[in-house]
Amino acid sequence: MTEPVRLTDIAELAKVSEATVSRVVNGKAGVAAATRQAVLAAMDQLGYDRPARSRQRNAGLIGLIIPELNNPIFPAFAQVIDRTLTLRGFTSVLCTQSPGAATEDELIEALTERGVDGIVFVSGLHADQTASRDRYTRLITRGLPVVFVNGYAPDVKAPFFSDDDAAAVQLAIAHLRELGHERIGLAVGPSRFVPSRRKAEEFRRLMAPVAGEAEVERLLVNSLYSVEGGHSAASFLLDEGCTAMVCGSDLMALGAIRGARKRGLSVPRDFSVIGYDDSPLIAFTDPPLTTIQQQVSSIAAAAVRALLDEIAGLPVPSTEYLFQPELIVRGSTAACPSS
Fold it and tell me: Where is the signal peptide (predicted)?
């Protein structure tokens, strides 16, 4: 028969005192939010049934609208946002927007009907330059706090939190140039999306002096943010004589590696590939993927803090906050084969 979980077991796993665990179990005050969350996480891991008195009073509901979950970067954002909200006593209501499913407008309507206190938009229609901004203006006019992650719309008076796409391209190109590559391609998503446009603009600026202004357009591919999109882009860029390529997502990079291998090429010996995101588990691919890491935790935490400040009635500047990415060098890049 399995022995019952003891407070000592919870305290050991959470790295706190048994007295602290007792305070959490009995719903007593005087425990820091992060410590309380660590104790609750330990309870869940050990299968300890939380007593009703340990439950924190719900401060409110926050809507979270993200794209489909098959790209691992979006669940990563959702996890950090949900955890940060939980620490502040709020509950997130997760909505995913995928092709053929509910539209962003329908999700907004469902969330407002539930009486959410605010909404976090991650890579939504605010990143699409062809989409109407009226949906966001209506929410702001009604006084509903909103924040946006990745994608900037200057005419929407709200805070935006984005990875610095130009800096990401700078890091990638500098790394490949140091390895001797000159014929470098870029594969990003559709040009109507702000992150794709920003990456493409910086790529043109950096590569025009190397390849020429006319030729650089042949090294730039707009495709889909998917394995298939990366495969297709790699095939095109290999035909253009590229020895390396930078991708707009890790999924695209995996597709690029697959495309190179279908031609009998070895990555990175014959062809170097850089991804973007540093999605969970991407370090365990074959080869381990060199990528540009989004600062997911910092971006998500800052967005939640701004939203909760808005809810509390504190002033939050309506501007864009850019976060610096980081180059993570692994095994998918190497010296140019001709150098």
Answer: none
Q: How is residue 263 written in tokens? A: 């031609």
Give kind and range of the element (H or E) at residue 97: strand 90-97
- Give the β-pairing of 272-277 and 320-323: unpaired
User: Which long-range contacts link 134-137 to residues 24+ away (Cβ below 8 Å)?
Assistant: 135/104, 135/105, 135/108
For 165-294, which CATH superfamily applies? Response regulator (3.40.50.2300)
In terms of pLDDT, which residue wins out, 267 or 25?
267
The predicted model gives 206-228 an average pLDDT of 93
Q: One fold for both 7-54 and 60-163+295-323?
A: no
Q: Which residue did the predictor score with more confidence, 215 or 34?
A: 215
Q: Are 155 and 187 in contact (CB under 8 A)?
A: no
Count the alpha carbons within 13 Å of 133 in the hemisphere toward its beta carbon: 15
From 1.10.10.10, 2.160.20.80, 1.10.260.40, 1.10.3720.10, which CATH number describes the 7-54 domain? Answer: 1.10.260.40
What are the residues whose beta carbons fall under 8 Å from the beta carbon of 186, sequence distance 6 or more? 169, 199, 200, 203, 219, 220, 221, 245, 246, 248
Query: Per-domain residue ranges for the chain?
Result: 7-54, 60-163+295-323, 165-294
DSSP state letters, 53-82: GGSPPP-EEEEEEEE-TTSTHHHHHHHHHH
What is the per-residue pLDDT for 1? 46
- Supply 130's token pair: 């062809």
